[in-house]
Amino acid sequence: MTYNLTSADPVGMSFWLISMALVAATAFFFIERDRVDGKWKTSLTVSGLVTLIAAVHYFYMRDVWVATGTSPTELRYIDWLLTVPLLMVEFYLVLSAVTKVPARVFWKLLVGSIVMLGFGFAGETAMMNVTLAFILGMAGWAFIVWEIFKGEASQINAGLSNANVQKAYKWMLICVTIGWSIYPIGYFFGYMAGGADAEMLNIVYNLADFINKIAFGVIIWAAAVADSDSKA
Question: Which H or E run includes 127?
């Protein structure tokens, strides 16, 4: 049976829009690698990988939604389990572009993101108690927020004289604290507060991914270009 996406399906349309935006962002980030200094290329490559991985998953999630009217949680976590750790590592990569950063900063951000997502997945798929999983997942997020606001990563950023990196770091903080808060809010209302409207939740998640994946990458690109051009 053939299923068609229609304009009367706002969730399906939001899946389609974010899918194409992710594809466009991927092409943009990979092409722009040639414009920046070598020390920034890894950051833009990771940004492109994030949007590429997400784009592939979004095309599949869109088809599942159009065919069934559902968006299984497992599909989102397949995306998030890959892209979120990469996004967190970007803090390390951005700082490393202009200064020496201890490897432990990389590992703290990576492990914190895996803990956050692992418990979130366990709770949403009924592998463990929903409330306990939420608390432990939030502990992982709290650790990440502390590290980038007050921990070693933050201290390294505060000691920099590079205004471009500091500006990017500030906006990356905003994405992680405000943009990422959408996901635990959705978890809370979906599993602990009587349920949430599935259609609205999917639209909100799609818009959140636009900010947290594409806009996050654009922030890094802007810093990379500004820093590279300042030394041209």
Answer: none
Give the Cα separation of 177 and 96 in Å (integer). Answer: 22
The three-class DSSP label of residue 192 is: coil
| Cβ-count burial 134-148 (b if 16+ within 10 Å, e if not) | bebbbebbebbbebb
Helix or strand holding residue 40 (H, E)? helix 38-68
In whole angstroms, give the CA distance from residue 197 to residue 120: 19
DSSP class per residue in 108-170: HHHHHHHHHHHHHHHHHTTSS-HHHHHHHHHHHHHHHHHHHHTSHHHHHHHT---HHHHHHHH
Question: Could you tell me the two tokens for 32?
Answer: 């722009």
Q: Which residues contact 197 (CB under 8 A, 6 or more apart)?
A: none
Entry pTM: 0.89
Superfamily per CATH, domain 10-230: Rhodopsin 7-helix transmembrane proteins (1.20.1070.10)
Return d(Cα 172, Cα 143) in angstroms, integer.
16
The series of mean pLDDT values per 10 residues for the chain, 232 residues long, is 69 90 97 93 96 94 86 84 92 91 92 91 86 91 91 91 90 85 72 68 85 94 91 65
